[in-house]
Design brief:
Strand order of the largest sheet: 1-2-3-5-7
Radius of gyration: 15 Å
Number of domains: 1
Distance between the termini: 52 Å
Strand content: 15-25%
Structural class: alpha/beta
Oligomer: single chain
């Protein structure tokens, strides 16, 4: 059955389920609350503040998308692009950073969740290939 663009922005249910499974097993996560189709509250362990998380399926997030998301939900402090083939522009990343919002792909977000403040906002996953070369060398 055709989707008629249903998942152009809205995250696919199977992607949401996979993200929730990953969060349930995450050492820095105490729980997850659903707010609506796009928003989750990630309750973190320790003294880490909760993350109001906007999840999206936009193919390439740009600056206008960041503006649209934050206009829709201005309490957002984490935006996660779900699709494995999706990405975000450097403009979008810069706009999110300037507004104190973390912008990450699915896997990046799982690493960033460990951190707070600028370490959260500026989180960059290590290159696993480079780590393997360093261990072998």
């Amino acid at each position: 059955m055709p989707e008629f663009g249903r998942y152009k922005k809205r995250p696919r249910p199977e992607s949401v389920a996979a993200f929730k499974r990953a969060l349930a097993a995450h050492s820095a996560v105490d729980g997850v609350e659903d707010v609506n189709d796009h928003v989750l509250i990630i309750r973190r362990t320790g003294n880490r503040p909760n993350l109001r998380t906007y999840i999206t399926n936009v193919y390439t997030l740009g600056g206008a998308d960041i503006d649209e998301i934050l206009a829709e939900d201005d309490d957002t402090n984490l935006i996660v692009s779900f699709s494995a083939w999706s990405n975000y522009t450097s403009d979008a990343k810069g706009q999110a950073l300037a507004r104190g919002v973390g912008l990450f792909k699915f896997g990046e977000a799982l690493g960033a969740i460990h951190y707070v403040g600028s370490r959260f906002l500026n989180y960059t996953p290590r290159d696993t290939g480079e780590r393997r070369r360093q261990r072998a060398g």
